[in-house]
Design a protein that fits this description.
Length: about 140
């Protein structure tokens, strides 16, 4: 945990900046990054998602992120994308998280968190991290 906390601190100023620009809770972004990549900017998933916020190549391109391993670009894109998911799902955090993980189409299809084990675990884990970050900030 110490390594992850150190990495989180390194990225905090940029997270705070983009969270403010895109109107999202910085602690939620830290929670997403914790689950997505453990703050490892070189992370690559088995399906090809890259960087801190694990952007899929097509999504990264849509968001104007040309180097997914560039921490600042990746966070700018990921935070903007999460903000878009929050807007799309009327500020429902759980739906926005599910959309971040499984795609907005899946959330719309099931009218909520899709019945995918991975997505359900993802939402739960991000919210657990969020609670932890919220407690630290008190």
């Amino acid at each position: 945990h110490a390594i992850m906390q150190q990495r989180a601190l390194t990225h905090s100023p940029v997270i705070e900046q983009y969270a403010q620009i895109y109107g999202v809770d910085a602690r939620m972004i830290k929670a997403i990054i914790s689950v997505e990549s453990c703050f490892d900017r070189h992370a690559v998933s088995r399906v090809g998602a890259k960087g801190l916020m694990q952007l899929m190549p097509a999504t990264a391109q849509e968001l104007g992120v040309y180097d997914a391993f560039n921490a600042n670009d990746n966070m700018r894109g990921g935070i903007r994308y999460f903000s878009e998911m929050l807007s799309r799902f009327d500020k429902n955090t759980e739906f926005a998280l599910a959309a971040y993980n499984a795609g907005p189409g899946a959330v719309e299809k099931y009218n909520g968190i899709p019945p995918y084990e991975e997505t359900q675990q993802y939402v739960k884990r991000v919210l657990e991290y969020y609670e932890r970050y919220a407690t630290l900030d008190q």
